[in-house]
Amino acid sequence: METEKRTQISAEQIDNRDLSEQIKEVTKDSHVRAENTELMLSFQRGQVTLPQYKLLLCSLYEIYQALEEELDRNSSHPAVAPIYFPAELARLKSIENDLEYFYGPDWREKIVVPAATLRYCHRLRQIGKENPEFLVAHAYTRYLGDLSGGQVLGRIAQKSMGLKSSEGLSFFAFPGVSSPNLFKQLYRSRMNSVELTAEERNGVLEEAVRAFEFNIQVFDGLQKMLSVTGNEHQESWTNSEAVHSKTLPGTISPMIRMVLGLFVALATVMGLYAL
Q1: What is the crossing angle of helices 50-73 and 115-130, to 10°?
Q2: C-alpha to C-alpha distance for 215 and 264, rounded to whole angstroms
Q3: Residues 6+ apart with CB under 8 A from 73
Q4: pTM higher than 0.70, yes or no?
Q5: Which sign does the torsion angle of CA 129, 67, 60, 44 carry?
Q6: Residue 49 CA to chain centroid, in angstroms?
Q7: For each of the chain's 275 residues, which pLDDT tens digit applies?
């Protein structure tokens, strides 16, 4: 696999760096590719709509459910234990609260996600069983990314959607973290202390690149979902792009589709590089 080959070369070149620095280095190309899209450059306009945010929450729910269940199950694993902070970082309950706020008590029946989200979740389940040390890459990418960009994204979302309070924005709040900067220092220190063989470390770096790619694919999948209009909704989502759907959104304009991409890309990419 070409990506893995590039990652292995990069890992050898930066062998003396801490794991957190190595992850930044090997994912640099993916980051540049994502941030230089027209969508990412346009996000600064601060245009986020309620339908977009609700669909994003659906995918985040599935992803964090898989990630946190695997972290819980492997909490005593020597590679996972040092970076296991459920009280400070767990997102699942917050996302559930947000989904209930927007969709109502039957929100589970209204979940809609692209196929890419399910592939991402499948990978998390797979490594949880076969290579728990790889969870380090996914936890670092997701949690510290969300923690870094959470406050800014929360304000953008609240203003753009015209929300008068922070209700529905629990995902962006980390009440268990009093100082994000100090906590990130602690987290990186714990992660850098994880003892890995050379083969395991290279595997974690390859998984970090893979995690980035999964997030980009989710972003693309959400765009495709929103491009389906009229009578094509049900057939397209059933056959390829979406699952768990009982409530289908209406026709979405090209501008709205673009802005959804911006929001997802920022949520999954920008935060990590604000560390």
Answers
A1: 10
A2: 8
A3: 128
A4: yes
A5: negative
A6: 19
A7: 544 445 544 445 456 689 999 999 998 887 766 555 333 443 456 666 787 788 889 999 999 999 999 999 999 999 999 999 999 999 999 999 999 999 999 999 999 999 999 999 999 999 999 999 999 999 998 998 889 877 777 887 788 788 888 899 999 999 999 999 999 999 999 999 999 999 999 999 999 999 988 988 887 787 777 666 333 444 444 455 555 544 333 344 444 444 444 444 444 444 544 45
